Amino acid sequence: xxxxxxxxxxxxxxxxxxxxxxxxxxxxxxxxxxxxxxxxxxxxxxxxxxxxxxxxxxxxxxxxxxxxxxxxxxxxxxxxxxxxxxxxxxxxxxxxxxxxxxxxxxxxxxxxxxxxxxxxxxxxxxxxxxxxxxxxxxxxxxxxxxxx
Length: 148
Fold this sequence. Notes:
Elements: H1 20-26, H2 31-36, H3 38-59, E1 65-70, E2 77-83, E3 89-94, H4 106-115, E4 119-126, E5 132-135, E6 138-142
Parallel strand pairs: 3-4, 4-6
Antiparallel strand pairs: 1-2, 2-3, 5-6
Helix pairs in contact: 1-3
């Protein structure tokens, strides 16, 4: 994945428990604990989105793959990267917040700049209701848009 311009990436995979409810149970978290802990909420929402996208990627006939991307120094991380067989990529950041702004897309902007023309689009999925542009080839979209 990401053959050009990205020399310092980690190779370790990111594992998900496919069922976000099961993940919450295994973490010993009820709804109150999840809603009061932003980091835990973010992880549960990230898990939920990955579980929704995985079957769609598996059905894609073009050979698309889904990855997690993190630089070795930890400065940059993209929650999900969809990569086509031709090398074109879509970066996805998942935010549990209802409101996002361009600073929430800073890792997508880094990825766009590193990938150049192979970067097709960046998407910041969020818990709000609006779709709007966050930067060049980067859009904020509601998580609910996955089903529209």
